[in-house]
Amino acid sequence: MADFRINLYYNLSTLLSAGLPILRALRMVQNNASGRWKKHLSEIEREVGGGYELSESMSRRRRYFANLDISLTKIGEQTGQLAEVLNSLGEWYELRRKIKNLIISGLTYPVFVIHVAAFVLPIPLIALSGMDWSTYLPRVLNILSFFYVPVIFFYLMCRLFPRQGSVRRIFDELFLKIPLLGSALRCLAMGRFCYTFSIMYKAGVPIIECALLSHESCGNEAIKHRLKGGYDAARNGTPMSQGFGRNLDAEFLELWNIGEESGNLDKASEKLGQIYLDKARFRFELIASWAPKLVYFSIMGVMAYMIIKLFSQIYGSLPTGF
């Protein structure tokens, strides 16, 4: 299901760029909304007409608008670049949707195969070994447990762990060590940081505010810890590159430093954002491509193990002189 915010931000950006007042733009985007979104947009229009800023009205509905959306909208209002900021938000949510759909589409078929295999694999073992069919369902559940137990475990860890703090940072560090997935998550967090920074810096936002909000928006506590020195350096009036941790990518440090020295930090951060987001997309595509293959190899391994075990039971029970 598509995120309604994609069309909302794109449409508002287009209408504002065409010179329409914010109230008329809000009224027009309601035509494409339905249900709760139509209701909230109607309330936002009424509040903006009563003197509220758009960002202020959005902040009253944090269930539907993220902190990043509210902060960037406020910056767009303050700098007179609301249309550009809303367009950038639309691009960001569109990228998120593409990555999410890529992961879901890549994992749907392997999950289906796992469930089919769970119901099929026990049949030959039971039939050939002469075991009672009352053991069929427990065997199916045993196979499925190898899939569901880790999934439930990681889901509970994500839900129960706080989103910020040292505990979450340890959790995120563990995720970053997972082959390929960790690299994809790292590139996504770095891309978010650079992309958010470029949006605000181009809008004329003071570098301290750019550093703070982009640092908060990267979405990974482990990466935030590595980038924190950049915000501390900006707050102390020194170049951000002097505060970044040395454990960051050499490419990132070099391009950021060049951007600061040349006075083109907006272009450098935008370029870095594109590089990292492209890397993240490529890695998620690899995951989606290799997930089915890993499932197939796992199933083949299980089948080989069951066949070997079955034959060892059959031939091991035969008389020695047979």
Topology (SSEs and partners):
Blueprint: H1 4-17, H2 22-29, H3 35-49, H4 54-59, H5 67-79, H6 82-120, H7 122-129, H8 136-160, H9 166-176, H10 181-202, H11 207-217, H12 221-235, H13 250-262, H14 265-316
Give the tags.
single chain, 322 residues, mainly alpha
Question: Could you explain the architecture of this structure?
Answer:
With 322 residues, the protein is mostly helical. The protein has a domain at 4-80: Receptor-associated Protein. It has 14 helices and no strands. The chain is globular, with a radius of gyration of 26 Å. The chain starts with a helix and ends in a 6-residue tail after the last helix. The mean pLDDT is 82.
Q: What is the number of helical segments per DSSP (H or I, 4+ residues)?
A: 14
According to CATH, the homologous superfamily of the domain at 4-80 is: Type II secretion system (T2SS), domain F
Low-confidence stretches: none
Number of strands: 0
* Overall pLDDT metric: 82
